[in-house]
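Weekly modeling sync, notes
Attendees: S.R. (lead), two postdocs, one rotation student

Agenda item 3: backlog of single-chain predictions. S.R. asked that every request posted to the team notebook include the full sequence so nobody has to chase files. The rotation student volunteered to paste the first one in as an example of the format we agreed on. Action items at the bottom.

Example entry:
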Amino acid sequence: AAGAGGAAAARQAQAQAHPHVGLALSELPTPTLVVDLGALEHNLAVIAKAAQGAGAQWRPPVKAHKCPELAKRYVAAGACGVVCLTVSELEGFAQAGLADLHLANTVVDRAQMGRVARVARLQGVKRVRINVDDAETLRAWAAVAAQWEARLEVLVEVDINHHRCGASSPEEAAQLAAEVFALQQQISQRGGGVVFAGITGYEGHTPVLPLDAKLRETQAAHAILAKTRRLLEARNIAVPVVSGGGSCNYTEALSTGVLTELQSSGGGLDDNLYHSKAQLSRHGHKPAVFVQTQIISVPTCGTRAIGDAGFKALGWHPFGGLPVLAET
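Predicted structure, as returned to the notebook:
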């Protein structure tokens, strides 16, 4: 009996195919999220070609899809790594095999800092980058990195008119970067610490502006990054990475010639926000993500049809508006 029980446990421990694999779309339970892989791969090729043409690396955020398998497809298409927005995302994507990670958010909690440092020490992890915009937070990161003997690359974040996180001026950012550079010199050969990697900013105020305004605001934002870089170079501090942009303005961001790294992800899936509101359709993007639903009620008056997917299933973004019916 013990042998039979052990065999059953072994069978249960084996990886099982998902029960939905192999089903026709019409057989899937609804509501369900569907990704058109052909359209996805097309969109990734469009972004990769644009970044390559501008001489920039491409590092897509994972915050929207939170799916390591999708992230690996982005990397296979040419992305250099991924951007995470939470410590949990960082841990999950590292454990799933993503090796080049940027935590593009401000962390001030020492326990969370320790978790980030431990990710940097995981076997197979090539790089962990963090954002800082404050000297006190920077010194806390340096102490945690030293404690865990972890090497953390630092991007100094600059407010480039989005007015969220970021140093308030190029001068303030340059001073903070100089402090990172000074702390870098204290790293012993075997110890951990912080290493200055560059600067970053987020143009989160530009996504659905009219095209001329989007270009103008992106140029103004990147002028702040460019000034910060010049101030650092005047101190003989090299700035290897200037990271920014997003899917809604990625062509405008690449056109300024300031970025060395593009943060663009949503244009891969190209939902309605990106396709229509941000007008990525003009660059040849194709919608690649859909919610499949089915009609569950049609009143005899014929004025409406009710599906089994509501706001919780479909999501709603203040920029994107209501969902639209996909052509089939």
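Discussion: group reviewed the output briefly. The longest strand covers residues 193-200.
Action items: rotation student to repeat for the remaining queue; S.R. to check formatting next week.
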